[in-house]
Amino acid sequence: MNEKQQTISKSVSVTGVGLHTGVVATMTFVPAPANHGYKFQRIDLPDQPIVDADVDNVVDLSRGTTIEQNGARIHTVEHTLAALVGLQIDNVLIQLDGPEPPIMDGSSIKFVDALLDAGIEEQNAYRNYFEVPEYVHYMNKETDTELAALPLSDYRLTVMVDYNSTVISSQHASLNDITLFKDDIAECRTFVFLHELEALYRQNLIKGGDLTNAIVIVDREVQDGELDHLSQLLSKPKVSVNKSKGILNNVDLHYPNEMARHKLLDLIGDLALVGRPIKAQILAARPGHAANVALAKKIKKLIKSGKGDIPQYDPNKAPVFDINQIGQLLAHRYPFQMIDKIIALDENSVVGVKNVTINEQFFLGHFPGNPVMPGVLQLEAMAQTGGILVLTSVPDPDNYWPYLIGIDACRFRRNVFPGDTVIFKCEFTSPMKRGIVKMSGRGYVAGQLVCEADMIASLVKKK
Is the pLDDT at 282 greater than 60, yes or no? Predict the structure, then answer.
């Protein structure tokens, strides 16, 4: 999986009818800056409102996932989002001149092709992965649906579907490498059972559905004259069915398990609404949009709790700033140069590393015989980490002093001893105004929280 965030090199558009609304719309993917994420924009509405691709904005799950914000609604977002996740594109503005992305052929492949034609561009910011820290489970006994997310330092998905149908047997599909999404999953099309068609039309859905953008599975005997009725319903001059295939108009499948693969595609798109790239093993039995979104909400709740959002340190990877580069930014020198490496840095957050050794000067007098790192120096190391974030947010950091001017909600959770490696993460909690900025900071040793504080920093111009 990629380490850096990505966007596209230029804007690209696709046009087509929406599956459920039947409205023809043009959807344009627009490059976006780091940490922008996925946002839809209804350019056909007054003020062109923005809708964040966020699970908290889901308002309807009738045969698709619909989101709404700022008075604007976007229907059936899952195929679009799956294409972006599958290509590991992090930041895109998705402009629509209608209420729903085009269904195209019922899969994500047309979106994938368009995005690849636009070109993918790496950005100078690390991907903000959420590594699921514990078993997350969702079950609906009424629908016999069960989904789980398990800890894994990768993103893998496995889906099982079983419709008790003579046409579709129990099917499984897996994706163990997200880079294989284009080849193995993207072209798998949406499907519907024949017995569902008229009910969906009566529910004012699938107005744009036809045999070019969905597979219709014939799961019962078709009565005389019914094919003529279906041809009118689907706006086709003629429809037919081969009993050996069990698919209306005898459409050829891309894969024998295309239905399970499409359910996996939907799952990827729905889980994109968590708002961050995920590292987890996802297992899904008989999933649907409601269950997918329910699991996404559980994962987002974990994110909000702070669980699993612990920065990972790989000493084999080159740092963003080494000790010499830190010295060029911060004026601190021995014995007050507290940070050894910066291992992650973007517009809103920074991660620094402090290796604690018995040779630290303060251990000579701080609890001799029981060396413990003073809490105030843990806070100093955290503040210096935040100082890197503050200084790199301006174009001319050499012209400023970063001062810590406020501390709140400071807690020391565990002792820090010689031999510990402390990982500090600081994040902006508000935009900088008149040189004043607020940050939250946390320090971890071996994945355990050791200290935390809210800080206020001031950038003062050097005289």
Answer: yes
DSSP strand pairing (145-150 vs 278-285): antiparallel
β-pair partners for 52: 39
Q: What is the rounded distance in angstroms from the CA atom of residue 384 to the CA atom of residue 394?
A: 16
137 is catalytic: no
Do the annotations mark residue 266 as ligand-binding?
yes
Would you state the pLDDT for residue 176? 97
Euclidean distance between CA atoms 460 and 400, whole angstroms: 5
Please report where in the chains the tokens 């190391």 appear, as a residue: 381
Burial string for 120-151 (b: 16+ CB within 10 Å, else e) reads eeebebbbbbbbbbeebebeeeeeebbbbbee
| Run of H or E residues at 169 | none
Quick: pLDDT tens for 285-304.
Answer: 999 999 999 999 999 999 88
DSSP, collapsed to helix, strand or coil, labels residue 316 as coil
H/E run at residue 194: helix 194-202
Q: What is the pLDDT of residue 241?
A: 65
Using CA atoms, how far apart are residues 275 and 90, in angstroms rounded to an integer?
10
Yes or no: say if 17 and 103 are a contact pair by the CB < 8 Å rule: yes
State yes or no: 210 annotated in a binding site.
no
Q: What is the pLDDT of residue 203?
A: 67
Instruction: Return d(Cα 232, Cα 244) in angstroms, integer.
Output: 24
In the numeric block, which tokens belong to residue 222? 């078709």
Whether 348 shows a pLDDT value over 70: the answer reads yes
> What is the pLDDT of the chain when averaged over all its residues?
90
User: Which three-class secondary structure state does DSSP give residue 27?
Assistant: strand
**297 and 55 Cβ atoms separated by less than 8 Å:** yes
**Residue 340 per-residue DSSP state:** -
* 144 annotated among ligand-binding-site residues: no
**Alpha-carbon span 425 to 442, nearest angstrom:** 5
pLDDT, average across residues 185-189? 97
Q: Which stretches within 176-221 are classed as H helix?
A: 181-184, 194-202
Q: pLDDT at residue 68 above 90?
A: yes
Q: Which of 427, 399, 422, 400 is nearest to 412 (CA)?
A: 422
Residue 208 has pLDDT above 70, yes or no: no
The pLDDT score that the predictor gives to residue 262 is 97
- 350: nearest Cα among 390, 315, 397: 390
Whether 289 is catalytic is yes
156 alpha carbon, distance to own chain's centre? 14
Verify cis geometry, omega within 30 degrees of 0, for the bond prior to 335: yes
